[in-house]
Amino acid sequence: MGIVFGAVAPHGFSIIPRIAEDAEGALATRAAMEELGRRFDAANIDTIVLAGPHGIRVAGHIAVSVARRAAGKLSRNGNTVELNVPIDLELAHEIAASAASDGVPTAEISWGGNRISQAGFPITWDAITPLWFLGHGNHVEGHGDVLAPDPDGPDGPPVVVIAPSRDLSRQTMIDFGRSVADTAERSGKRVAFIASCDWAHTHLESGPYGAHPDAKPVDDKIVASIRDNDLKAQLALTDEEIQNAAIDGMWQTLMLAGVQERVALRPELLSYEAPSYFGMIVASYTPE
């Protein structure tokens, strides 16, 4: 089959209900993620390929998870969530090999045991937050809540976790996305590509990165690139704009742009808000 679903999803983990009941103000984002989860469920996904900025990174390479399972925990204000999910090893190896043959430097990453059957892969908020809403939390119909996964229940779809190095060019991200799409098609699996992204982190002076006037204009450009179905418009962002706004999503969305070179995906912007110091976008991508 190939890529049958795509998304731009945030990773501010206060949107997970068990972390913060009020989502720390990001209630529109939480509602949009719940809708994204419903669309994901309807797509009957076999494997999730998730690209995020905060996992294990390798300078000059795109890191690909190759281990038996991926696991991590998030805690805030005494509240904790935890995920332990299977990795699609076959697809992970194929993605890494295909990208390398296309000239994209890749690194296969695992942790712990030297045998794959004994190795793990650590994940953090950039993977846990989207996965919580996409197949790895129990969606409670009519309650608007996502509960902890049932430890005795079935696993959600296996994953392949990707982390780009920012040493690589923007064009390399597009090239990698094409390789992912080609590999997914050859696999015969129904694959979702998720770009885990937050946007300008300089909306508030009291935030950890301070405030900068480029924050909102840069977020506006990102929103427009999604609405206009033109993710490659992000290639026009200057290095100064990227640094001033402190975005962390462009690299992953350019991978999605590469996917779109192979698969016609129609975007729908579900939400944008910046209730604190950083911006969050939820968008779904479905086949034309």
Unreliable sequence segments = 139-151
Please give the CATH architecture. Answer: 3-Layer(aba) Sandwich
Quaternary state reads single chain
Number of helices: 7
Please indicate the percent range of residues in DSSP E strands (runs of 2 or more): 25-35%
The helix/strand order is EHEEEEHEEEHEEEHEHHHEE
Helix content: 25-40%
User: What is the alpha-carbon Rg in Å?
Assistant: 18 Å
* Main sheet: strands, sense, barrel: 8 strands, mixed
CATH superfamily: LigB-like
How many domains comprise the coordinates? 1
Shape: globular
CATH topology (level 3) name: Protocatechuate 4,5-dioxygenase, Chain B
Mean pLDDT: 93
Report the span from N to C terminus. 14 Å
Structural class: alpha/beta
Q: Biggest sheet, strands in spatial order?
A: 6-3-11-2-12-1-14-13
Plain-language structure description:
This protein has 288 residues and is of the alpha/beta class. The chain has one domain (2-197, 248-287): Protocatechuate 4,5-dioxygenase, Chain B, CATH 3.40.830. It is built from seven helices and 14 strands. A hairpin with a 6-residue loop joins β7 and β8 (119-122). Residues 139-151 have low confidence and may be disordered.
